[in-house]
Write a structure and sequence with these properties.
globular, alpha/beta, eight-stranded parallel barrel
Length: 402
């Protein structure tokens, strides 16, 4: 009896802890009300269509063991969840010549020339496993550079890296312009002992110090760097059949001058994405569309399907980060895909019905002390993506055969 009472007490205690964790998350960032989606259509004027060209992929966030991104251990991990289209970080390509830390972590490390032989080896590893090394993720080093000879030399390195990407059988380069570090400033307990991290715009943000690595960067400065970059690399991308996928700054919609920088996707997030892709209206110039960043950068995360449709119809989305947040502009938490405010299934329907072709990758996940490498969390993400892909496919079959 004593043992039974202890067991019952433990169950009550655990349930109380889970309830408290959920309450803490809701109290920190209340969940938005989700609109009902009638029948199959997200947009009444967008017919449901059969689309088998959307696939699941994985990236450098989940490396198993110590033998590298395309080791048998890592590839078997991806294969278990049918994530067969892979994105490697530039650091995975082997030799990094004269690395120079620019501050802000790995995103701001200036890698040199990528190792072509290493990339070919990684592609061979993937091909033998029935997979594809699709994309290389470039660092943010360029965007930190002011006009001058050093930047011109670095652009030459980037142009050569694009040629190597093509020679290695890859078709995409993704990149994330992080002039200042990705901002998170609080966390709350999440389900199952997880921790959810979030960001809330500081009331005194105008008094925060200028980020010393970047200094003061105006909107004109920022867009000059973007314009120069695209002008330099788009022709080489076209020659080598390689596309670019720019990841927006996270979080978007920040006020101008936050930490001294006018981020390119500041203030009006949707307008900034349109401006970026139309600066050079070419298939090579596209985005890594991040469902979570869109949700956290808009006043209402449910409206992200509007900008998503606009981009997808113009073939400006070259990759998708499929993740979720709870909250909205200037106040959000990163959560598991099934409990956030971004309309994940509707996002997938928009991609399906616009005829989009490409890879969905999970991204930022909650952390748990029992899962320090987030392998369990990402396994959930891969399963969630596969489930939605199947649901979207079956729904389209029913709709188009009715």
């Amino acid at each position: 009896m004593h043992t039974k009472r202890q067991f019952a007490k433990a169950l009550v205690s655990a349930a109380t802890g889970l309830t408290a964790a959920g309450s803490a998350a809701r109290a920190a960032v209340p969940r938005a009300a989700l609109p009902r989606d009638a029948a199959y259509r997200v947009f009444p004027d967008l017919p449901v269509r059969r689309n088998d060209k959307i696939r699941s992929g994985g990236d450098y966030h989940t490396v198993v063991g110590k033998n590298g991104f395309t080791s048998p251990e890592s590839l078997n991990y991806f294969r278990r969840f049918n994530a067969r289209w892979l994105t490697a970080a530039a650091r995975d390509t082997g030799v990094v010549k004269n690395p120079k830390s620019l501050g802000g972590g790995a995103e701001m490390t200036a890698e040199g020339a990528w190792d072509l032989d290493r990339m070919k080896q990684m592609q061979d590893d993937c091909q033998r496993a029935g997979m594809t090394l699709e994309c290389i993720r470039m660092s943010s080093a360029y965007i930190m550079m002011k006009p001058g000879p050093e930047r011109e030399r670095f652009l030459d390195v980037l142009r050569e890296n694009i040629r190597k990407v093509h020679q290695a059988g890859c078709t995409l380069i993704s990149y994330h312009w992080t002039m200042i570090p990705i901002m998170r400033n609080f966390n709350v307990p999440g389900r199952g002992g997880s921790t959810y991290v979030g960001f809330k715009l500081e009331p005194n943000w105008k008094q925060l110090p200028v980020y010393r690595r970047s200094g003061r960067v105006s909107s004109d400065d920022y867009w000059e760097r973007i314009d120069t970059f695209l002008k330099a690399v788009i022709p080489v991308c076209k020659e080598n059949r390689v596309k670019l996928a720019c990841h927006p700054y996270d979080p978007g919609g920040m006020p101008l001058g936050y930490l001294g920088v006018d981020n390119w996707d500041a203030v009006d997030y949707a307008a900034a994405l349109k401006k970026y892709v139309m600066l050079y209206d070419d298939p090579a110039n596209g985005l890594t569309y991040d469902c979570g960043v869109a949700g956290e950068s808009l006043p209402d995360p449910n409206t992200e399907i509007v900008i998503m449709r606009w981009l997808a119809e113009r073939k400006k989305i070259n990759q998708v980060h499929f993740r979720n947040v709870r909250g909205h502009l200037h106040n959000f938490l990163e959560v598991y895909e099934d409990e956030g405010d971004c309309p994940m299934f509707n996002c997938l329907k928009v991609l399906r019905d616009t005829g989009w072709e490409g890879t969905l990758l999970p991204d930022h996940n909650p952390v748990n002390p029992d899962d320090p490498g987030k392998l369990q969390a990402f396994a959930f993400s891969y399963g969630y993506i596969e489930g939605l892909l199947r649901a979207a496919r079956e729904e389209s079959i029913r709709a188009t055969s009715a």
